[in-house]
Amino acid sequence: MSLILVIEDETQIRLNLQEILELGDFSVITAADGTIGLQLAKSKNPDLIICDIMMPGLNGYEVLQELRQDPQSADIPLIFLTAKIGRNDLRQGMGLGADDYITKPFEPFEILQAVTARLERHSISNQAYLKESHKSETLQQEIKKNRTELQNSQQLAQIRGNVLGKLSEELRNPLSSINMAIHMLKQAKNEEDREKYLSILKEAYTQEIEILKEVDSLQQLLTAENTKLLRNYKLLR
């Protein structure tokens, strides 16, 4: 059940409005002046406000201005109630953010029709806002996900670059030994020298095989998912 706040200094009009709205299945709270009405608006957060313009203390324009300046009450629909309305009055009220005007004297159906229309419009606006808010949140999550994936890929590329650099250096050592052993083997003059250089070749070959095995293991280890896991456990910077 929607809560309606009626701010009206004339007792009979205030009571009439309360009766009409309650018969229309609305919950109603009332205030006899703008100051009390503003306090109720901020404490009760009604779904809609019907407010007279000419009142002692705070008038309707001042009430509306205060409401629109407060984020808690800025989007509450407000319908002005007034004995007469000119173009300047209309422009002033709409400029402050009024949603509608009802002139006195009024018929019960005018009140119910205006209130129902404004509540429906406000509901549609809220739904649209929630939809856009959800889309915005989803987009932010996608951006965050993409940023994380990019950071992971950059981290992974850096690690792979470092590893490949180290492997390249390690591969050069046995290759140098192999090259040297082949050269010396060609110049060997006896069986003892040949055996010595063949042993060097075998040892260098074994080193190369071990390094290649390490490369295969690292290729399986250095995935984006493992990089993310290592960062989560602060094993990577």
Shape call: rod-shaped
CATH topology grouping of the largest domain: Rossmann fold
What are the low-pLDDT stretches, counting only 5+ consecutive residues below 50? 233-237
Count of helical stretches? 7
Question: Between the first and last Cα atoms, what is the distance in angstroms?
Answer: 56 Å
Quick one: CATH class of the largest domain? Alpha Beta
Spatial order of the strands forming the largest sheet: 2-1-3-4-5
Average pLDDT reading:
76
The CATH architecture of the largest domain can be named as: 3-Layer(aba) Sandwich
Proportion of residues in extended strands: 5-15%
Please name the fourth-level CATH homologous superfamily of the largest domain.
Response regulator
Helix-strand pattern: EHEHEHEHEHHH
Tell me the radius of gyration: 40 Å
Essential attributes:
single chain; 237 residues; alpha/beta; Rossmann fold; Helix Hairpins; 2 domains; five-stranded parallel beta sheet; 7 helices; rod-shaped; disordered C terminus
Structural summary, described in words:
The chain is of the alpha/beta class. The protein has helices at residues 11-23, 34-44, 60-69, 87-96, 108-187, 191-221, 224-232; strands at residues 3-7, 27-31, 48-52, 78-82, 100-103. It has a five-stranded parallel sheet with strand order 2-1-3-4-5, with helices on both faces. Helix 4 links the parallel strand 4 and strand 5 (100-103). The longest helix is centred in the middle third of the chain and has 80 residues, at 108-187.
